[in-house]
């Protein structure tokens, strides 16, 4: 089915509507809204078949986020509005027709919005842009694979290529992808994790010896206290609200730390229960700390300091001395360091009152089991790695590891981003993994670390990286410093994108470019040996299978596994001992190799077929084992270096609306925040707005203030008076990426600082963004199809 009336991508930002932010999430509107996209895009029958197969045994894993299924999962039918949007966006019967490519030069596609591009429907045939050509043209698969492998073979060094991965790729695809890349001879593997939870991996690896959550699903239900820092579950992990509701029913408490009073942190009306729909719902946060952006490290240090002082007042009553003596190192240094922490420094950095921090400390000390969760509000701050180390410090003080209801829990984003890392997608995999890989496939993997996402852009810019291949994702739009990233990508000799739908990265091309369309997770995948399933890992290390249930949208589509296998075969030939054809024919063969290479995945084929899959081992969670050089969990000393925001300036974060999945824009309402029909807004505290001489609704230009002296600006944004913390502001991602400098990254993880940008507002020089100005045209989102 092709679209007869292409959606327009010109929105009139004068239609923007601002209402009151919501105080609760889901409920009847949740159900209503969750059905709308499906019915509109897929029709009743395809909708029912698809939505009912989601997160079920013998169904497919929801591709929206990495939140786990309830234990004994797949007996409970649990799905959410944003999962439904993700599924219908993929399972739409609308396809891009062959004549589309001749009708639309790449220069025109480049002017289109992400929304428009995505709404053209599913990609169904490989297309190629030759050097000097202005259009993509359909080609056959053999020609496409050949073009890619010939280009790769012609490079003077394997390091002239970089291979990106987005977190939707299955374990099977990811495993053979990294095998191919290392067989080719490079570790240049930038991935979406570099922009996402890299800070969590670094901080947790150094302190507790594992970069993953130390809790299982049931721990969320039974913990006495859950502290959510820098995370918006109502929009980004909506099924987490059910777990929070159960935890409250079990008598637990919740504290939320966020500059924005997000609806999903306040009250939840469970759409799966009649009471939830009709009643008042469940109050979630017992305490809400409206923190100044970037202030979390100061807050955590202040709480730890208070905990240590309480122990001094009542020795033996506050710290878990036994746990610390047996399992930890560094308490003396931590105590000494925190003894110098000035309260006024904390209050300035956090914008909080001492009593609020006292209250949080009391809750923490009085709770027997505590889980701290976090996401991008922490990992994308300049001090993100240090902040997470302070989360670990606080948890260690009271032994909140390796017992029920206790632990550290980064909440991962993409549905299989954690699995991809487990399978070896990382530019710096440890020697033990490379050794095992080399033994299994009789070759010597490259040892030198490869480029991450930021370094990949620098490499393209400087001409060191000439070839780029993406397994999913939308690198051009997801990366920081849009102008720098796009200029770098235009320097490429070849840009190859394995994708389900059109996006910005297909339009930012250098000499040659290819788009290779692939099957989505919802679709039935039949190979020579019969129907195949794949496997994925969620945010609490539960691994399970995923099997598509709907007919592929077009006959010629190849699976990710097939595409990678064919490129590898054509490029490497017999260079390494891998049966690429066998991998494509039968995914069991891939899993057999995974069993031999990936720690914790022994007997993978058997265990993945068990009813609910299996849980990967985790030292801190299972046995209070800490895989650090000393064998102890490390309490660390982290220098507090509060963000210096001069007066008249604001700290800007870039965030997700309720109508998007990362760079995919489903529509342009942000229901819970009360913003409708537009995305070109900047949320500012009313007092700050007045102080800066603006009024609610004024049009402003948002200027970044940087050391590099470059002027990065978002023009014509609507100022919205919003109850965010004082001194803070928020715009949507990816529009806001224009303002994040390439070189401004988190210390220790090199993640772009997407949540801590110093800005100033000026009166807009032109009309609203998204009008007719060429500069803004591409990020202009219309409301409906
Ligand atoms: N529907 C939907 N689901 C998604 C996604 C999506 O785009 N749409 N994306 C997926 C991905 S890849 C990811 S990584 C996750 C992201 O999930 P989140 O991390 O929840 O996503 P963000 O919108 O970036 O929101 C970050 C939150 O941090 C807060 N924040 C900002 N700065 C600070 C700070 O300095 N301190 C504190 N304490 N809070 C701060 C913001 O106000 C916001 O509430 O969601 C995943 N799930
Ligand atoms: N300023 C700012 N920048 C950010 C962030 C932020 O908060 N602020 N967040 C960062 C984060 S947390 C992340 S994770 C990254 C996300 O970065 P990416 O993972 O690169 O981006 P996505 O938007 O998730 O990728 C969407 C594209 O993936 C393709 N796709 C979808 N499903 C499939 C599939 O099954 N197979 C294949 N092969 N392709 C598929 C589609 O073509 C779609 O257009 O962005 C980061 N960038
Ligand atoms: Mo992410």
Automatic annotation (TrEMBL):
Pfam family, one: Molydop_binding
GO cellular component, one term: membrane
Phylogenetic placement of the source organism: Bacteria, Bacillati, Actinomycetota, Actinomycetes, Micrococcales
Protein name (database record): Formate dehydrogenase major subunit
Region called Disordered, residue ranges: 764-785
Basic and acidic residues compositional bias, start-end: 774-785
Segments forming domain Molybdopterin oxidoreductase: 122-496
Similarity remark: Belongs to the prokaryotic molybdopterin-containing oxidoreductase family.
